[in-house]
Amino acid sequence: MNPPGSLRVLEEKEKEHLATPTVGPSIHSDIPQERIQARRLRIAARLEARRREALGEYLDGKESEEDQSKSYRQKEESRLKLAKLLLCGTELVTNIQVAADIREVHRRVEEEEIKRQRLEKLENEVKTSQDKFDEITVKWEEGKQKRIPQDLWEMLNAQQVHCAGLIEDKNKLISELQQELETKHDQYVKDLKKQSGDICLLLERMEEQVKNVMKAFRQELQHIENAFEVERQELLTSNKKKWEQALQAHNAKEMEYLTHRIKKVEDHEKQLNKQRIWDCEEYNTIKIKLEQDVQILEQQLQQMKATYQLNQEKLEYNFQVLKKRDEESTVIKSQQKSKINCLHDVLNNLRSKYNKQVKQFQEENQSLTSDYKRLVTQFKEMQKAIRHFALIDDKQFREIWLMNEEEAKDLISRAFDVDRVIHTHHLGLPWTAPDFWFLKNVGPISQQQRKSATQILEEVLMEAEEEGAEEAASEPGSYLDLPKQVSAKTTRKILMLLCDESGFLIESKLLSLLLPLDKNECYLLKLDAIFSALGIENEDDLYKLVDFFLRYQAHHSAPSQERTSVASPLEKLDLQGEKEGSLVEREPQEKQPPPSPRLIHPNDVLKILEAFVTGLRKPRDFRAPVKLLKVVRDDSKDSEYWKALTTVIPATTLNLWDALYTALEKYHLVLTQRAKLLIENSSLERQNTELQQLLQQYVDSKINSELQVPPTQVFRVPTK
Amino acid sequence: MEETQITSSLSFPSWSSTSTQDQSSTAGQASITGPQPSKSSAIPPPVKSKGPSSGAGVRRMRRIIAEDAEWSVAIVPLLTELCIQHIVKNFQNNPILKQLLPEHQKKVLNQLSPDLPLAVTANLIEDENYWRRCCTQRWPVCHVDEHGGSWKRMFFELHLENLLKHFIPSTTDPEVILSLLPLCRNYVHTIRVDQFLPPVQLPPPLRGRDQSDSSSEGEMEEPATDHYQLGDLVAGLSHLEELSLVYGVKDCGMNFEWNLFLFTYRDCHSLAATVKACHTLKIFRLTRSKVDDDKARILICSLLDHAALEELDLSHNLIGDRGARAAAKLLGHSRLRVLNLANNQVRAPGAQSLAHALAHNSNLVSLNLRLNCIEDEGGQALAHALQTNKCLTTLHLGGNELSEPTATLLSQVLSINTTLTSINLSCNHIGLDGGKQLLEGMSDNKSLLEFDLRLSGIAQESEYLIGQALCANREAARQRALSPSHFMSPATAKGHENLAG
């Protein structure tokens, strides 16, 4: 129940309050969002004010009371007044009921008292009458005993009198009671009247009350309306004032806008005129231009028409021509058709010919393939022969090479000797033997080319294959210079074992690829993969591996009976292989039975491999792998080699030698002179010796010793 | 325009008689705009008038030709109108209502006569306007608010009450009421009967007490003075909620006889059984019927553990302490909210037993013991009970011979109790000191709104001060009612402020 007046005042205050400090959103802004924002803020402020007022601002109650509007005050006053009126009215009305009630209560009390008295009285009466009655009845008894009529009469009279008295008493009582009843009747009637009077009064009062209340309500309504009217008037005047102010402002603004607008309109009109003139001019120019264009276009149209007619004629002519051509072409077509038929016949003939040809060629092909096969076998044989001859050639070559080399080396050594002599004896310089690589070379150069492990493998396997194929053949893998102690077979077996056991080193993808391949190829590829994994790259490594295997075996398996017994068949095999491969150079040691690879238990293979790999790691790095597959001997270095042999004594040395020669010539001259001089000298010496002997004789005489200064110390004895 | 005229022309004759209705209604149809309906003979049938008009065009139709006596501007009513009229005419024989369109239903209902037999209309017509017409026709004053705002319900309730009022046992045929039962069973919620006529048994010189009586009086001689047995009727009414009965005769005037006001034991037993069987009953009033202790006990016994009963009014009877004890027992065995034992003969023991029941009760809202005689003993017992009771709001102890001791106890109660809103102690002997004590008690109370102490011998000063306190309480209560969501403290503060100003 916030009084509207105070609210308005507050609101205004709030407005002022809001207007001064916050520049932010205003209600008169042009942007709708901002306006909404401003309104929201205002509502929030109002709510806040209301809450504050409701909560705690009763401290300045008087102030707010003054603030309350007239209408509100009037309303409260009227309400209180009316409530009082109603209360009083109902009290007035109910007073009748209360009065009736209290009357009734009093009546009841009185009635009770009277009733009690009456009852007492009746009881007394009953007692007394009972006494009297008893007396009478006693007298009746007495009367029965009386014999004298007079007495009896008297007594009867007395009895009668007594009875009458009793009855009279009773009657009196009855009349009293009746009188009481009568009065009660009257009382009842009075009460009824009173009641009706009460009811009349009640009705009257109720009516009066209704009237009063209505009147009061009307009055109060009037008052309230008046108050509202006054307030409304005030509000209206204030609003009117505001409105007028706003209107004035509005009018002023309107005027301003109007003038502004008029100015603008004038401006616009001017601009419009300008625009119009400009447009007219432009229009004219454009029009002229367009007319010119039209003329040009018309000309062009005429031209086009002319060309069109020309073209039409041309086309007609063409059409005619084409028609004729068409006819011609139809003729040609028929000709062509007949030709096609002919050609079809030819084609059929050719087809049959072709079939024949195909058959013929097939036959030819078969014969050729058989030829080819035969040639292949021949070729293989040839290859074997070539290989054989190559070996022989090699050997011959080697022998010749060795011979020549020996010769050359002899020469070189002689030259070196000479050189040395010259250097040491003649020049007095220390001589160092030149250390050329070719000097140590024995045999043909680059014969010792290292084979890669795979090649070896291939060879080993090939050999095995050939062995399997032609066991009896005289030269199975003879060209293979296997290392010293290990037979090819042993190697092969070891490799097989390795291949079987270390399948984990091979990639699974490779395995799947290998499936369809030949057994040997399969082994080859597998071993290749394994070797690449192990890091075995060349021959030496491979032999090391094999060697390692054998040695490992020798170390770890104790010499037992088993060994010989198991090895014996192998031995035989080896021996056989040796006999067969007698061409291969073998040291006699090799003939001793090598430890059988069979003895290597498959479970040991991995251990051996591990040990091998750890051992192999160290000496690996220094050698760059020379992986050149050389089937044909490289003779480029041969000439170099031989040339190098010729130039064992460098040109400087030769020059030296020449110079030395001349010098020596000179020296020889000197020497010959010297020899002559020497001869002279020797003769002189002989004289000298003779003289000396003489001197000696003199010196050895005892006199000398006795001399103060011995002559031996004065002059020297010449030494040789 | 047209329609209203029709209804008026229809409804007018229905007031007088049905024989003229047909004539005038047919006449009314034809001559709606005609100046005098008496000219019915001169008016031609509508077809005739339509003949020339259709040919002459719209403009000519409007013209009135003075010479042509047969000319009429009346337009033929629509066929729907005609049909509706027919339906209205034959509604009694062939009631067609539900099949019609809503607007047509409305028209029919507007034109129906309120005199139609109830057997036709009772279960068919729901329209309030029709029943309003029925009510206003039969009764000059109608307070529809007292009947739940429903005219139909009001009609049936008043009709039934009328029948019951004028029922004379063993003379009137019970079928008169029972035949109405299937028609009104769904609409009657309340029965308020303020008189039950006894069977006619008196010799001719004493008759003529009632119009309806005298008209249908026979030579029947029966010893019993039992009244109408409500059992069958009440059992049939499925929505009955209120039953207000007075076993007595109104307007007997000088024909007063004690026999007219006899509430016999058979009546009592049958009424008890009836009330017990009616499970929907919420309000039961039996006033001015000379119910003494035994009858009250019979009735209350049947009301024990009644599921719905909320108000029991046994005022203006002859109930003494035993009856009051029975009522106290009822308080503990029902959901009674209002108990009225005004103007009985309850004394201190009865009041004590009521107080005992009240101390542990949480249903009773209003207790009226006006014009009994409970005296100080009973008053003190009730005051003690009020110290523990948390439910009672209205207590009337007017005219009970109470005095100062009760007032002292009540003043204590006033300072403790916060539920009581109205106490009436008028017409007692409270005295000056008691008034002062009550004033002290009032000074601590914030809930009491009414405190009647008229004619109880208190000083005017204290009465005035108590009035002031009540005024303040009323203001506070008004504030609370106006703004239930508001904080309590400002509201009360405001109230005080207003009072001060």
UniProtKB/TrEMBL annotation, chain A:
InterPro entries, alphabetized: DRC1/2_N (IPR039505), DRC1/DRC2 (IPR039750), DRC1_C (IPR029440)
Pfam families (alphabetical): NYD-SP28 (PF14772), NYD-SP28_assoc (PF14775)
Domain of life: Eukaryota
Family indicated by similarity: Belongs to the DRC1 family.
Binding partners and assembly: Component of the nexin-dynein regulatory complex (N-DRC). Interacts with CCDC65/DRC2, DRC3, GAS8/DRC4 and TCTE1/DRC5.
Protein's job: Component of the nexin-dynein regulatory complex (N-DRC) a key regulator of ciliary/flagellar motility which maintains the alignment and integrity of the distal axoneme and regulates microtubule sliding in motile axonemes. Plays a critical role in the assembly of N-DRC and also stabilizes the assembly of multiple inner dynein arms and radial spokes. Coassembles with CCDC65/DRC2 to form a central scaffold needed for assembly of the N-DRC and its attachment to the outer doublet microtubules.
Protein name, UniProt field: Dynein regulatory complex protein 1
Lineage start: Eukaryota, Metazoa, Chordata, Craniata, Vertebrata
TrEMBL record, chain B:
Stated family: Belongs to the DRC5 family.
InterPro entries from the UniProt entry: DRC5, Leu-rich_rpt, LRR_dom_sf
Organism: Lipotes vexillifer (Yangtze river dolphin)
Gene name per UniProt: TCTE1
UniProt keyword terms in alphabetical order: Cell projection, Cilium, Cytoplasm, Cytoskeleton, Flagellum, Leucine-rich repeat, Repeat
Protein name as annotated: Dynein regulatory complex subunit 5
Cellular localization per UniProt: Cytoplasm, Cytoskeleton, Flagellum axoneme
Biased composition (Low complexity): 7-31, 48-58
Positions with biased composition (Polar residues): 32-41
Superkingdom in the source lineage: Eukaryota
GO biological process: microtubule-based movement
Principal location class: cytoplasm
Pfam family, one: LRR_6
Region span, Disordered: 1-58, 202-222, 482-501
PANTHER family found in the cross-reference section: DYNEIN REGULATORY COMPLEX SUBUNIT 5, YNEIN REGULATORY COMPLEX SUBUNIT 5
Assembly and oligomerization: Component of the nexin-dynein regulatory complex (N-DRC). Interacts with DRC1. Interacts with FBXL13/DRC6, DRC3 and DRC7.
Function summary: Component of the nexin-dynein regulatory complex (N-DRC) a key regulator of ciliary/flagellar motility which maintains the alignment and integrity of the distal axoneme and regulates microtubule sliding in motile axonemes. May play a role in the assembly of N-DRC. May be required for sperm motility.
